[in-house]
Design a protein that fits this description.
The chain has 195 residues and is an alpha+beta fold. It has two domains: 2-89, no CATH class; 94-194. It has four helices and seven strands, in the order E-E-H-H-E-E-E-H-E-E-H. Strands 1, 2, 3, 4 and 5 form a five-stranded antiparallel beta sheet that branches. The chain has a two-stranded antiparallel ribbon with strand order 6-7.
């Protein structure tokens, strides 16, 4: 309890809730009940808006004897009145609030889950297509290296031939049909192996 501006007025909780038991027992008829006499605020956690509140306080007067008046008065704190200010959100406003706040929250959660599903749907086929394309490139590279190796072996195995290995990897030979037939056969075998 606190004194206000030098006057013997004190503020406290109604029915001296949470005060010393001796103070409660000094006044007949007091029955402090937390649910009825305490201040509370129900705050919605996402927005921080107060949905229900009750602010309760009691004004008390300090009584004391004087020489002129109240000679027979007992000294103590006397409750004068207690007040309650509060409010509660209406059912209609509560429903509108739920739709605005929680509806938006549910929409964002559903959108997030939908985007995750879409990403998974696109990533898996993309990975498969990329793997296939890389495999085809590697197979084509292996075929080219195989052809080059065959050409080099033909040149090495026939040193008396007038075959000439040119700078671009082609072979000039006196027997072009024989070389091209061998290369075509090897290319066909390599393609069959990759399929």
């Amino acid at each position: 309890m606190t004194i206000e501006h030098g006057t013997p007025l004190f503020l406290g909780k109604p029915h001296f809730l949470d005060a010393e038991q001796s103070l409660i027992n000094s006044i007949f008829g007091l029955n402090p009940i937390k649910e009825l006499h305490d201040t509370y605020f129900d705050i919605e956690p996402i927005s921080g808006i107060v949905m229900d509140t009750a602010e309760r306080f009691q004004i008390n007067l300090m009584m004391s004897k004087t020489d002129i008046r109240y000679k027979d008065c007992c000294e103590g704190i006397m409750p004068i009145l207690w007040l309650e200010f509060g409010g509660r959100i209406t059912e209609d406003l509560a429903n509108r609030f739920k739709n605005l706040v929680y509806g938006t929250q549910n929409l964002s959660e559903n959108l997030f889950q939908g985007l995750n599903a879409l990403a998974a749907t696109l990533i898996i086929p993309g990975a498969i297509i990329t793997t296939i394309q890389n495999r085809k490139r590697l197979d084509a590279k292996e075929i080219q290296q195989g052809k080059k190796s065959i050409k080099q072996n033909i040149v090495k195995s026939n040193p008396n031939n007038s075959n000439q290995d040119l700078d671009d990897g082609t072979i000039r030979s006196d027997k072009p049909t024989e070389i091209s037939e061998n290369l075509e056969d090897l290319s066909e075998e390599a393609e069959e192996d990759t399929q």
